[in-house]
Amino acid sequence: MLDTFLTGIQLLFTLEGIFFLSIGVIVGLIFGAIPGLGGTTALALLIPLTFGLEPYQAITMVGGVMGSAEFGGSVSAILINTPGIAPNAATCFDGYPLAQQGKAGMAIGASATASSLGGLIGVFILIAVIPIAKEIVLLFGPPEFFMLAMLGLSAIALSTGAAFLRGLISAGLGLMLAFVGYNAISGGVRFTLGSEYLWDGIALVPALTGLFAISEMINLSVKGGTVAKEAGAVRITRVFDGVKAVFQNYPILLRGSAIGAFIGAIPGVGGTVASFLAYSATVQVSKDPDSFGKGNIQGVIAPESANNAKDGGALIPTLAFGIPGSAEMAVFLGVLILHGLEPGPLLLIEHEGVIFSLILALAASCVLASLIGLCVARWLTLITLVDVHVLVPAVVSVALVGVYALHSNFGDVVLALVFGVLGYVMMRFNYPRITLVIAFVLGELAERSFHQSLAMADDDWTVFFTRGVSLALFVFVIACFIVPAIRFITRRHRMQTTT
Amino acid sequence: MSSEKITVDWRELMPAIVVFVLAVTFLLWAQIYEGRERLVPTLVAWLTIGLATLDILSCSGTRFGQFMGKVLSGAASTDTDKVPKLGGVLRRQVIAVVWMSGFVALVAVVGFLPVIPIYVLLFMRLQGGKPWRQSVIAAVATSLFVWVAFELLLRYNVYGGLLFEG
Predict the structure, then answer these.
(1) Rounded distance, CA A103 to CA A94, Å?
(2) Do B100 and A168 touch (CB under 8 A)?
(3) Can you tell me the distance from the alpha carbon of A395 to that of A390, in angstroms, rounded to the nearest whole number?
(4) Measured on CA atoms in the order A85, A89, A94, A96, is the torsion positive or negative?
(5) With the C-alpha atoms ordered A160, A163, A167, A168, is the resulting torsion angle positive or negative?
(6) What's chain A look like in SS3?
(7) For the segment A217-266, what is each residue's pLDDT rounded down to a tens digit?
(8) Among A162-176, A190-204, A353-367, A399-413, which stretch is predicted with the lowest mean pLDDT?
(9) Above 60 in pLDDT, residue A67?
(10) Which of A136, A137, B80, B152 counts the highest number of beta carbons within 10 A?
(11) Could you report the per-residue pLDDT of A381-403, keeping only the tens digit for each?
(12) Alpha carbon of A212 to those of A76, A90, A354, B129: distances in Å?
């Protein structure tokens, strides 16, 4: 194994290897930063370019894209509240408020460092887990998926800040939106208003672009000025404050990475759920949950580390069983097959060198993307000082073209506009968007796995509590409600005794 | 008998009523589907109706409403302080939405590429009061970026509008 590892290093650190890795990283960063595109689109477009390449060259380039797209997406999330890809939406919650406070450099520094370290941790977990991957993946059935979704939904209660009631109402609206389209129970469609466009449900990327980017652009148009409220506070030194903050908050980095790798390994759950769960978990265990959503650097570190670590996890079922856990992995599977690499247990034995090239490329791309990010952060932060009357039309144009490009469907553009107005109204009337998004992302998974669980257990609801992993997750759900309550009571008691 | 004067904050009450109506509509709508299909949506709709009712009560200005507001709503969420309150800015809010809706409507008819430079130019000139030169440069730069990135490099067929694409 060590020999193969060294061969992988030799292949990667050649002039050719670094060249293809760099191309992948740059493409990934650009595609990640443009709303609506993302790593999957980049991979799909790169497939034809890999035809004439050696397998390890193609895999190196692909690894470069996969490791860098997430960080690219976080940059636009932080600077203009526009998640480049769906999993970056969780980064908006605290990244953008930091940019408004003139700390965009700090947020980008934290995002770059958390992304690269999270990616590396994800790769280490991948290497460690590959031998026992099958057992882990098979532990997860519908009841476990349901409890996982419940775990995410339970975080809603804590993500609402002071607007508890309206936070729950937003979550209700998010769940209602999640029910639109095909349902996994009967295969029929629901709540589509007779529109074929809605048969596939409400598209996530246009909805998120609307809720965050378009609504923010409406808000900026109304307010005027610049994104950064304190224009003089944007300084390059903040970038290294962000790097430092990641090391100071290493438990959050480790927890986020572990959550990301774990969720990534479960087929069908994906990076969006991973980053939201990591964010929620950080809010739940924080001693100061009220500071989240207002520019807490931990709210950037957790989702970004999870986001990048999930790639390592997602490769486990993809490489070991040929089960792609996400659209990005499905495209990646296509690249493997195109180059004569049949995914499955034999792949790990017959093409160990190529696999290690991929793993190393993934690790190196995370670091390279972050280094590029740190180098250009100085100029990127200047975006927050641009007059909104210049920024708004440019962002709206690029965001809506990106949204259209995703599925070449004009309905997505209209949807983004509708969600933009909805997002602004929610901001205006104190309905937190965080809870709507969490519920919207997890709603379909929760309903589908709920019905699947009951179907497999002949409507016996105890199925959720008789399986080890499901029961453990249920305990976590309960803990999510009890622990903060206990902490609140303890704090109140302490305050009473001191006064 | 209490002589307490009940004041109702209609601006806060309106969205609560809208949510209530939406939830009731959703509940009725869910009933057209059969058993399992409507189970979870019905549950969610009932919960939202309950929560919206509490929200309406908390905006009602009664003593109970004030109590509910203190217990459940609080003063501000993470998002609120970013947005100016309704009143003097209503006109600007409407104008901001009209600009974007107008942009999307025009794109629907003639497509992105002809509309983007016009939108950027007009927005900067009319809304931002920027100088002609700066507005033209921004309009050309944005259009060029979209054309180079999407049409030229990515080979995407950027939407051409109903007029040109049928």
Answers:
(1) 11
(2) no
(3) 9
(4) positive
(5) positive
(6) CHHHHHHHHHHHCCHHHHHHHHHHHHHHHHHHHCCCCHHHHHHHHHHHHHCCCCHHHHHHHHHHHHHHHHHHHHHHHHHHCCCCCHHHHHHHHHHHHHHHCCCHHHHHHHHHHHHHHHHHHHHHHHHHHHHHHHHHHHCCCHHHHHHHHHHHHHCHHHHCCCCHHHHHHHHHHHHHHHCCEECCCCCCEECCCCCHHHHHCCCHHHHHHHHHHHHHHHHHHHHCCCCCCCHHHCCCHHHHHHHHHHHHCHHHHHHHHHHHHHHHCCCCCHHHHHHHHHHHHHHHHCCCHHHCCCCCCHHHHHHHHHHHHHHHHHHHHHHHHCCCCCHHHHHHHHHHHHCCCCCCHHHHHHCHHHHHHHHHHHHHHHHHHHHHHHHHHHHHHHHHHCCHHHHHHHHHHHHHHHHHHHHCCHHHHHHHHHHHHHHHHHHHCCCCHHHHHHHHHHHHHHHHHHHHHHHHCCCCHHHHCCCHHHHHHHHHHHHHHHHHHHHHHHHHHHHHHHC
(7) 898 888 887 776 655 555 555 788 888 999 999 999 999 998 888 887 77
(8) A353-367
(9) yes
(10) B80
(11) 777 778 888 889 998 998 899 88
(12) 11, 11, 40, 26
A348 to each of A127, A316, A359, B106, how far by Cα in Å? 11, 11, 12, 53
Query: ipTM score of the complex?
Result: 0.87
Q: How many CB contacts within 8 angstroms connect chain A with chain B?
A: 209
Query: Using CA atoms, how far apart are residues B12 and B20, in angstroms rounded to an integer?
Result: 13
**Eight-class DSSP state of B123:** I
A471 residue type, one letter: L
Which residue is listed with tokens 């370019």? A49
Torsion of CA A53, A56, A59, A61, to 10 degrees: -60
Tell me the chain A residues in contact with residue B142 when contact means C-beta distances shorter than 8 Å: 393-394, 397-398
Distances (CA, A) of A338 to A8, A61, A332, A359: 20, 14, 10, 19
- Nearest CB to A165 within list B54, B97, B107: B54
Cβ atoms of B102 and B122 closer than 8 Å = no
- Enumerate the residues of chain A whose CB falls inside 8 A of the CB of residue B95: 221
Residue A458, both tokens: 């002949």
Q: Which two tokens stand for residue A383?
A: 């975006």
Residue pair A316/A122 in contact by the 8 Å Cβ criterion:
no
> Residue B7 — φ and ψ, nearest 5°?
-110, 135
Q: With beta carbons less than 8 A apart as the criterion, state whether B157 and B110 touch.
A: no
Output the pLDDT for position A101.
85
What pLDDT is stored for residue A484 in this prediction? 62
Contact B100 A191 (CB under 8 A): no
Choose among B52, B95, B159: nearest Cβ to A410.
B159
Asked whether the beta carbons of residue A221 and residue B127 sit closer than 8 angstroms, the reply is yes
